[in-house]
Amino acid sequence: MNQEPNATSSQAAAPIAHPAALDNFAHVRYQVTDIDRSIAFYTQQLGFALEQKVGAVFASVTLGRLRLILSGPGSSGARPLPDGQQQRPGGWNRILIYVDQLDGHILRLKQQNIRFRNAVEAGPGGKQIQLDDPDGNPIELHEALNAG
Questions:
Q1: Distances in Å between the alpha carbon of 96 and those of 3, 45, 61?
Q2: pLDDT in tens, 42-66
Q3: 145 to 47, 50, 64, 101: CA distances (angstroms)
Q4: pTM higher than the cut 0.85
Q5: Using CA atoms, how far apart are residues 112 and 126, in angstroms rounded to an integer?
Q6: Residue ranges per domain, the chain?
Q7: Closest CA to 132 of 39, 42, 56
Q8: Distance between CA 136 and CA 32 in Å, rounded?
Q9: What is the average pLDDT across 26-44?
Q10: Could you report the per-residue pLDDT of 116-148, keeping only the tens digit for each?
Q11: Superfamily of domain 24-75+86-144
């Protein structure tokens, strides 16, 4: 019996088209409840640069090659899912920011009353700590072994 191969299984998926300017970034979306407060936190406390702000519903900030999308109430990225579930800040998936002199960053952030999720953890790759942005989205600061 002679069968033709399934055409869909032997073909590679076509690449997703997107603007070339976005190729150099990793993109992460965080749900937030106050765009201005989030912009202030990321730019003033963690050194991000404001890339774009659209009213009180959307902003993007960048740090190196990370583009963090901040979706406020009313943005298309914050709409309920088809099953009615609301998208909310928080969880355990997180962005990771490499820093030199982790202890200095911790001291500075504690002076600003930033909430930390844990104490410093040390492992074979360095040491790290987790903190929350103003809406409870997690961020990990990581000092690689032999850094700073």
A1: 50, 15, 15
A2: 999 999 999 999 999 999 999 999 9
A3: 22, 30, 20, 11
A4: no
A5: 25
A6: 24-75+86-144
A7: 42
A8: 9
A9: 95
A10: 999 999 988 899 999 999 999 999 999 998 755
A11: 2,3-Dihydroxybiphenyl 1,2-Dioxygenase, domain 1 (3.10.180.10)
